[in-house]
Amino acid sequence: MAGTRLDTQVVVVGAGPVGLLLAGELRLGGAEVVVLERRPEPTTESRASTLHARTMEILDSRGLLPALGDPPRQPRGHYAGIPLDLTLPGPYAGQWKVPQYDTERLLEQWARGLGADIRRGHDVHTVIAGAASHVETAAEGPGGAVRVRSPYLVACDGEDSTVRRLLDAPFPGHDARRELVRADVAGVDVPDRRFERLPDGFAVAARRADGVTRVMAHEFGVPPRPRTGAPRFTEIAEVWKRVTGEDISGGTPLWVNAFDDTNRQLDAYRHGRVLFAGDAAHRQMPIGGQALNLGLADAFNLGWKLAAHVTGRAHPDLLDTYHLERHPVGRRVLAGIRAQALLLLGGPEVQPLRELMTELIALEPVRAHLAGLVSGLDVRYDVGGPAHPLLGARLPHLALDTPGGRTSTTELLRAGRGLRLGGPHGGPGPGTDGPVLVRPDGHVVRAGPERADDEATARARWFPAGVTLPTTEGTPCP
């Protein structure tokens, strides 16, 4: 049987949070997209449950925050288990606890509402990317074989990416050296802990409002076990008892998981007509929620660029800036995670270094530096143009008084087209004496005194041809 044949502009493999955000961004930019997801149903597991300040800004800039309700906010995170105050300027400082199933549900509803074609139960097994004009993707779906032809494919299919394996893409780094086990367990009563270091390991326990407790443990000096799937709950209960002395074996496991300190990053996020985002592009220990948030920022950077490219409205070099911008960010985050893994998973031998780090984090410049790294608020891209404090950075979240009333910088970005902030003849942009040009992803590509040639250059490079850039005169609210 020939099966189903489809044509689209972009195929996204993977309907986790990264793939779903990317699908919505592609549709917002006018691109056709088909998402192929192996799982037949959305996840019911809490999994990655921490959203950082930059991710909250991203969701706000697409009008998605109200649907999240009022998730718990924790102003304090950690760096390798050492308490770290994440407070920085902006309304979303700290970390927000949102189960992954809620994040996925929100992003899937948004992407479908924009017209994304999301197909579950489709297991991709073939990717042929050698043609000059397209990629051929083959999957087995509930109704049989499916073949999709598209100019581009984006792999968002996780740390064990099928697409990465099929293309044999170089993925340097190191394999697991240490492992942690974790579970969401109902019916247990153990003390809450934040990275409590004990003689034989460390333990974390956090009881949610619904009575379910997330437990996590590591045994010092114990190498990772070979695995083909998730651990049994009996194993997690045994590790927990060896580390803490407590018996949780009578609890009911709702989710079990093991993860390790594998640390790898693709040499290139773009392989011709195939691009990679999220854990498919970089694999790291998911410490402090950084893995999920790093992947969502990949998708937010790529979506508008790829949409402009496939619809024929982009500068010829625009798509290449995805790798140029996101690969260094990923490299820096992965280096920080490696450092945290050494501090967190080492035994008594790392205690002097932990004590020194505790002293350093108490110094405000160090605290602010690490908070910016963990939260993603310190990312600045090399976008060219005259030097300016705002150039390449995200536009800070500001409440603004405009001729149309009070608004905010994130609200002005919700159409996904970018923004010109300041009057048509110059004027009071935030923190500058001239207009500010802001990309669809919220990063500033032109700031400072008004010069027509600078603005024309920035528009041609960063904004789709023929798009009318919304212009707003605004002054920061007192």
From TrEMBL:
SUPFAM superfamilies xrefs? FAD/NAD(P)-binding domain (SSF51905)
The residues covered by the FAD-binding domain are 7-334
Q: Name one Pfam family in it.
A: FAD_binding_3
- Record keywords: Flavoprotein included? yes
The keyword Signal is annotated on this UniProt entry: no
Q: Which domain of life is it from?
A: Bacteria
- What keywords does the record list, in alphabetical order? FAD, Flavoprotein
- Tell me which InterPro entries the record gives: FAD-bd, FAD/NAD-bd_sf, RIFMO-like
User: Known Gene3D superfamilies for this protein?
Assistant: 3.30.70.2450, 3.40.30.120, FAD/NAD(P)-binding domain
Q: Output the Gene Ontology terms for molecular function.
A: FAD binding; oxidoreductase activity, acting on paired donors, with incorporation or reduction of molecular oxygen, NAD(P)H as one donor, and incorporation of one atom of oxygen
Q: Which cofactor does it need?
A: FAD
Q: What is the designated name of this protein?
A: Oxidoreductase
Origin species: Streptomyces argyrophylli
